[in-house]
Design a protein that fits this description.
The complex is a heterodimer.
Chain A (H helix, E strand, L loop, with lengths): L2 H22 L31 E3 L10 E4 L5 E7 L6 H17 L3 E2 L2 E9 L4 H12 L4 E6 L3 H13 L3 E4 L17 E3 L4 H15 L4 E6 L3 H16 L3 E7 L8 H10 L3 E3 L4 H11 L9 E4 L6 H7 L7 E5 L8 H12 L8 H18 L1 E3 L4 E4 H9 L4 E3 L2 E3 L12 E5 L16 E4 L2
Parallel strand pairs in A: 1-14, 3-5, 3-6, 6-7, 7-8, 9-10, 9-11, 11-12, 12-13
Antiparallel strand pairs in A: 2-15, 4-5, 13-18, 14-15, 16-17, 18-19
Helix pairs in contact in A: 2-11, 3-4, 5-6, 8-9, 11-12
Chain B lengths: L1 H13 L3 H27 L4 H32 L6 H21 L2 H4 L1 H28 L8 H22 L4 E2 L9 E4 L2 E4 H23 L1 H11 L1 H6 L4 H27 L1 E2 L5 H14 L4 H23 L11 H15 L14
Antiparallel strand pairs in B: 1-4, 2-3
Classes of the chains: A alpha/beta, B mainly alpha.
């Protein structure tokens, strides 16, 4: 080999490395629907923990918890951690959640049981590796009581077992992939305040079959855990209802030319294409579907990953008529207005993404459970038994949060999921809060 | 010529090593898979002729864009023997900046009243920005390292790529921006039974015109001659009174202009621009440049078109027949398999015979 071709080999190796790094780092964030301001009756958001500010003092405490106890010396803070995507392209998702946590801490006056609350954090990125690294760092710090995170389902995949192994609890504000709370794959310390996509996929399929009258469906996912599982739930329910799934295709995050895959789908002749993916690829499919022969009249439907004004901007005129599923913002409980006001005051802007309220609720649930199980001995040392904390979170029922009435089921799903279908009726507009302007909530009535 | 060829074959056969045999076997296996897959897909008759033609047309438009970007890789390689991995970001910078011009023109209604003029303005802005970024990039990041070992500028290029990405993210935000729809390019043309998107035709023709223009510039102008002289032998060119630094700058400028124009064409097809948009097309264009024979301008064009068409056709032609589920996720795998195949059978690329240091 000449030096020149060796050089080429070097370059190719570097290319391969860069590419593989890129493929692994493919962001698979959980959906980021935009927050919607809802005129709601003002309800006090005072969290329960505040009502019992001191733990029961005992003369001497002996930790008998199977997972051990967090010991907090007199005057030391209670430490909780966030594990969110706070850098990179999905940064807004993580910063948004972190602000939810910070406002929750402010709302309890910065302290719990007479101790200051200290928030530490790790960047979990939006990838399995990022989640793993962040979880390992947090798990190594035994003074941490609980974790709020992750944002992306793919980051939770590796993080949940590590956090659970360390005896800690983690409450995710925005993971929606079903497998995280599947009894076979769930980690015992894992909880979430975001909806499970089993709910979202079912609502979408029922709407498509019953309301739109679609009988042949095609699905497209982008390889992310979120999209793949959601597309599968949709396909299963659609078949169950009596429909036919004529094509199940996939693209890659970062793909731009969707015409070939759409041509393949056109050959199968579906009535509806369901593509629960993210903004960039979702907008490309929306635009290019109009240009592929045979798909002129097909119904287009996406999910909460594209429920954003950015999608409307990116898809332009082509988005008109498309359907999107999303959390039903009219179901957000009272107190959300108050939260938005505090947010504006503290950060000088509106929320950047949608899971701030879920993060707020998760943090409040954690505080509530800590206050329930913590014990202080005569010397003033605070003990938080870890297994008891898990059980306390797991048994939370009818917890009044911003996102609704939260009740944890035995698998760690704590959300109060209400999913709605919205239709885009005009290009360049984004008023999900106005019932007469695009996008219009059309299901359930 | 023929006798020289056979002689060379004889030499090759004599020096045949185990690695060569293994490589040929891999190549033969891949080729067999491609042929069997294609045969089965065509047998299945799932697509009409019109749909096959559509695949090819999508591929040609995409390939034209790849080719224009690949031009920058190949020229820089020809002159400096370095891979400018930040070229994808040069490609991004132009259309991302021109987006704001396009939006403004759209708001003022110029796209409807003077579509050609407006498009020309967008092109000029994008090409100017990309050219500027490319030239500054060379000046700041590569020139001080001209004498350094080859891996040094390579790493610098990767660093520069990140730097540019995040600079533009800081400037314009991380959201996806969409180019306005241009009335003139909407709709289709029919040529007998074939119905083609106007945008695709315009993009393909524009790409070819630009490629030919840039090629003629390099072949027939004084600056082009200078660039070729530096590519041939830097020292000798310097001794002959060629300003090497200036010629290197010009190389980057020409490559940057090509990338900027490619960016606008890309934005016309896909509408979306964002700070990360240069990464994948950049990698693909680099592949196209290697495929065509790096350092060779017609090679870059051929490599780009070849790659575009194979990416578009490949999943449904090669993989569906083999029963692979969700074949479009393997689109990139097809592109790189093609690269491996070509490099096994022609280690210097399709037009590699002329790999001699030529810009």
């Amino acid at each position: 080999m000449t030096r020149k071709s060796l050089w080429l080999v070097y370059a190719l190796v570097v290319l391969a490395l860069v590419l593989s790094a890129c493929a692994r780092g493919t962001p698979t964030p959980t959906p980021t629907p935009q927050p919607v301001e809802q005129p709601q009756q003002p309800t006090p958001t005072k969290a329960q923990p505040m009502e019992e500010p001191t733990p029961t003092p005992v003369a001497e405490f002996k930790c008998e918890d199977p997972l051990g106890c967090v010991e907090i010396a007199p005057g030391d803070p209670i430490r909780i951690a966030y594990m969110l995507v706070v850098s990179g392209p999905n940064e807004s998702l993580g910063v948004d959640s972190r602000r939810g946590i910070e406002i929750a801490i402010d709302d309890v006056g910065g302290e719990l049981l007479g101790r200051p609350i200290e928030l530490v954090g790790e960047d979990s990125l939006c990838s399995p590796e990022g989640g793993q690294a962040a979880a390992q760092k947090i798990a190594a710090d035994k003074s941490i009581v609980g974790v709020i995170g992750t944002n992306c389902s793919s980051a939770a995949k590796n993080a949940a077992p590590i956090i659970s192994e360390a005896g800690m609890v983690m409450i995710s504000p925005s993971n929606t992939a079903p497998y995280l709370t599947d009894p076979a794959t769930r980690s015992p310390g894992y909880f979430r305040t975001a909806h499970n996509d089993k709910v979202q996929g079912r609502v979408a399929a029922e709407f498509a079959y019953n309301v739109l009258g679609a009988r042949k469906a095609a699905t497209i996912h982008d390889g992310s855990v979120y999209a793949e599982q959601l597309a599968n739930v949709f396909a299963e329910v659609f078949k169950e209802l009596g429909g036919e799934v004529v094509a199940q295709e996939a693209v890659n995050v970062g793909d731009t030319d969707m015409r070939p895959v759409l041509t393949t789908i056109a050959a199968a002749g579906p009535d509806i294409i369901y593509y629960p993916i993210f903004i960039a690829e979702g907008a490309l499919i929306t635009r290019q579907a109009k240009e592929v022969a045979g798909l002129e009249d097909v119904i287009l439907m996406g999910a909460d990953g594209m429920f954003s004004p950015d999608f409307i901007e990116a898809a332009g005129e082509a988005a008109v008529g498309a359907y999107l599923t999303s959390p039903d913002f009219t179901a957000f409980a009272g107190g959300y207005q108050e939260f938005l006001r505090k947010h504006e005051e503290k950060y000088g802007e509106k929320p950047l993404s949608a899971f701030h309220a879920h993060a707020y609720d998760g943090t409040m649930m954690l505080f509530y459970a800590i206050a329930q199980v913590a014990v202080e001995d005569a010397e003033g040392t605070l003990y938080i038994p870890r297994q008891a904390l898990r059980d306390a979170i797991g048994s939370i029922a009818n917890f009044q949060g911003l996102t609704g009435n939260l009740t944890c089921d035995p698998n760690g799903d704590c959300a109060d999921p209400k999913i709605a279908v919205y239709q885009i009726t005009a290009a360049g507009e984004w008023n999900p809060d106005d019932p007469n302007k695009s996008p219009v909530k059309i299901y359930p009535k | 010529m023929v006798s020289a060829r056979t002689a060379r074959w004889r030499v090759r056969l004599r020096h045949l090593s185990g690695t060569d045999v293994a490589l040929w076997l891999i190549g033969a296996l891949l080729l067999a898979m491609v042929l069997i897959g294609s045969y089965k897909s065509l047998q299945a008759g799932r697509y009409t002729t019109r749909q096959w033609l559509d695949f090819i047309i999508f591929g040609l438009a995409q390939g034209g864009v790849y080719a224009l970007i690949a031009l920058g890789y190949t020229m820089v390689y020809g002159v400096l023997q370095m891979i400018n991995f930040a070229h994808g970001e040069v490609f991004m910078s132009g259309p991302f900046t021109a987006y704001f011009v396009a939006r403004a023109l759209d708001k003022a209604g110029y796209f409807d009243s003077y579509p050609i003029l407006s498009l020309a303005i967008v092109f000029v802005v994008a090409m100017a920005v990309s050219t500027f970024v490319a030239v500054v990039l060379e000046l700041v990041a590569y020139r001080p390292l001209r004498g350094a070992p080859r891996l040094v500028p390579l790493i610098t290029a990767i660093g520069a790529s990140f730097f540019l990405q995040y600079t533009f993210r800081g400037l314009y935000g991380s959201g996806v921006k969409a180019y306005p729809d241009i009335e003139l390019l909407q709709g289709t043309w029919s040529l007998g039974p074939v119905v083609i998107q106007k945008t695709l035709v315009v993009v393909f023709i524009a790409a070819i015109v630009l490629l030919v223009g840039l090629y003629l510039f390099v072949q027939h102008t004084k600056i082009g001659k200078g660039i070729r002289a530096v590519a041939e032998d830097q020292q000798a060119a310097a001794l002959m009174g060629v300003n090497v630094d200036r010629m290197v700058s010009m190389t980057f400028a020409v490559g940057g202009a090509g990338a900027g124009a490619a960016g606008v064409l890309y934005a016309l097809i896909f509408k979306q621009v964002h700070f990360f948009m240069g990464f994948i097309p950049g990698i693909k264009a680099f592949t196209a440049a290697v495929l065509g024979g790096i350092g060779n301008i017609p090679g870059a064009m051929l490599g780009g078109l070849f790659l575009g068409v194979f990416e578009s056709l490949g999943p449904s032609l090669f993989l569906e027949g083999l029963g692979v589920p969700a074949p479009y996720q393997l689109k990139d795998a097809i592109a790189f398999t093609m690269l491996v195949l070509v490099l096994i059978f022609r280690p210097t690329g399709i037009l590699g015979e002329r790999i001699a240091k030529r810009a």
